[in-house]
Design goal:
The chain is built from eleven helices and 16 strands. It is α+β, with helices and mostly antiparallel strands. It folds into two domains: about 180 residues, no CATH class; about 190 residues, Nucleotidyltransferase, domain 5 (2-Layer Sandwich), CATH 3.30.420. The strands form three sheets. A seven-stranded antiparallel β-sheet has the order 2-6-7-1-5-4-3. Helix 1 crosses helix 3, helix 2 crosses helix 3 and helix 5 runs antiparallel to helix 6. It is globular, with a radius of gyration of 26 Å. The protein starts with a strand and ends in a 9-residue tail after the last helix. About 5% of the residues have low confidence. It binds zinc ion. The site of zinc ion (ZN) has 7 residues, from loops.
Length: about 425
Amino acid sequence: MARATRTVMVRSVKLPRKVFRLLVELEGMYHNMVEQLVMYAVRNNIKSFTKLKALKYREMRRLYPQLPSHYVYTACQDASTRAKSFLRLKKLGLTQKEYPEVKRVSIWLDDHLWKPSGYTSIKVATHKGWIVVEIEPHKQYWKYINRGWRLASETKIKLDKRNRQLIIYLAFVKKDKEYKPKGYLPVDVNENNVTILVDGVAYLFETNTERLVLGYYYRRKRIQEKYDVVYGEKSRIKRKILKKLRERGRKLDIRWKIANIIVRSAYNKQYAIVLERFGRRVANSMIARIRDKQLRHRIFQAGFRGIQRAIEEKAREYGVPVIYVNPKYTSKLCPVHGTPIIYSNGSRIGRCSKGGELWHRDVVAICNLLLRARLGDGSNAPSLGGPTLDGRPVPLASTATHDPTRIPREVWTRWKSLEAA
Ligand SMILES: [Zn+2]
């Protein structure tokens, strides 16, 4: 069973002053708790929720006896998450601060602290008992309700003080049954392209991830430096412009687009997706020439791991099975003869040392991923052969150079599925 999660933001109606004041008090106490817990966790190098809770539960209960006890649980969860990411940054040398700032909070609620009340309101447990908050459902909310998604037991709420509203982040979950694959669709994620093989045709999607991330990174840096000089480090204008840039960056986020195309193609054919089992070393060696630690991490996230994650997430949503295979030597051995392919200095085209045929490096990789999936080199690959499997040999016309069909980014980002090809 695969599990997909989506967060949907809904707003409450404008709340009565009395109710809102109660929520402000609640937020204040929650904020204090998280702040104290984070300080403690960071000082004592605690990253685990269980440990933090074990050490601080009694004290927090004593400090806030009027609060329902589960607020201590969720505050510990919230705090341990913050502490963990702060300690990671600290370890990477990416922050000079002693403690993370707990500026804005959203209040984490578990199933003891909130419950839906019909489809148009929720109940929240507070220090003054349960309160009912009416929400303003929108189209997207109804879409999830009507399509068989279920509300998760955890949610987060945030106060919009200007409008006297509650912002509620509802998590929806859906369980989907994975189907039995009728064939395979291997995906090879490279530095600047994603190559897939569908029924013997290799498609190379140009992504230029590196250029995209680098461009964004330097633009951001330039803005920061420029505005820091003129307006000081904490200027409102700078924040606004960076926010705009971030939003544009998200729109340019090609990860979801490529994941959509791939997963829909697999789903339409009822194939399983084949991915490389990523070793850290593999990724690092690909971007090793980038000195800046933070930048390297970003490119890795945006490019290789990021695209894989997006595919995994989409696949879960559609119930498409994913198979992982060992990526070792996938671009070095001829998929037909199993002998080394010789690439002359730096070329993407190589010659098979046995058959003499020409191969494009990315096509070799993708064919080998398919072979490995068929041979059961994945954790849950079906056995070889069988009537339901695509049993043809590796695609190969003896005279071709096995070049992939190259699709520029400007073209494929407008697609919804491969059928557009
Ligand atoms: Zn060969």
